[in-house]
Design goal:
It holds the Pfam family Methyltransf_25. By secondary structure, this protein is of the alpha/beta class. The protein has a single domain, classed as Vaccinia Virus protein VP39 (Rossmann fold). The chain is built from six helices and ten strands. The chain has a seven-stranded mixed beta sheet. Helix 1 packs parallel to helix 4 and helix 2 packs parallel to helix 3. It is globular. Bound molecules: S-adenosylmethionine. The site of S-adenosylmethionine has 21 residues, from helix 3 and strand 2.
Length: 211
């Protein structure tokens, strides 16, 4: 899995922030927030997020992705004390080490890039966070995607083409989140993540700690 993303990010020059990032940055972020991006890729969203927040942490399994994100942040002259970029697994992040007036956890197209075991571990860690307010913003592929069932079936709803994709069942994910968090918004629609000729039905979920 990491080999694919390392290869991908050795030569991937997408610069613009995603529509999801643009919306989160404009509608939800506060300048005092600390943002953690899970599966940050080359930092194209990270750069927009760090500009709207107090501190940004980008985590990705791919060392090439993190290197590319680092070059992007340096090129944009973001002060190095305002961010941290780490090669790591989002299902193992220790959120309790992150001090913030509010922690915003952002994941765009990374949740479906790993297993349901990783997803469950992540939700457990998020639910354990008790240092203050937390807001989680996720965009991910779903079983309603045209790419669903393309490639070799390797686990439930999970297919391998040149890389791994686990297509999420939106209602099941929402149920899991509902048990431990307050769901602020839940949308499953086309038009959120157009890319070339593709316009998949994707899921956007925003949730916060139970009050
Ligand atoms: C489809 S890319 C999305 C990248 C970026 N969020 C974007 O929208 O441009 C998925 C990313 O998730 C990363 N990833 C997959 N599983 C991960 C995990 N368990 N921990 C951290 N990163 C992971 C991959 O290395 C890859 O960079």
């Amino acid at each position: 899995m990491t080999a694919f993303w390392d290869h991908h990010y050795a030569d991937f020059n997408e610069d613009s922030p995603s529509p999801f990032c643009t919306k989160v940055a404009a509608d939800l972020l506060l300048p005092t927030d600390s943002v953690v991006e899970l599966g940050c890729g080359n930092g194209r969203d990270g750069l927009a997020l760090v500009r709207r927040a107090d501190f940004y942490t980008g985590v990705d399994l791919s060392a090439n992705a993190i290197q590319s994100a680092g070059e992007r942040f340096l090129g944009a002259r973001i002060a190095t004390q305002r961010y941290s970029l780490t090669v790591g697994d989002f299902s193992k992040v220790n959120f309790a080490t992150l001090e913030a007036s509010r922690l915003v956890v952002y994941s765009r197209f990374s949740l479906h890039a790993d297993s349901e075991v990783a997803e469950n571990a992540l939700l457990d860690h998020l639910a354990e966070y008790d240092l203050g307010p937390i807001l989680v913003c996720i965009e991910a592929r779903t079983i309603f995607d045209e790419l669903y069932e393309q490639g070799e079936l390797i686990e439930r709803n999970t297919y391998m083409t040149d890389h791994y994709r686990r297509f999420i069942v939106p209602d099941e994910f929402k149920e899991k989140v509902d048990r431990r968090f307050t769901v602020n918004s839940f949308e499953v629609e086309r038009g959120f993540a157009p890319y070339g000729s593709e316009d998949p039905i994707v899921m956007r979920v925003v949730f916060s700690g139970k009050s």
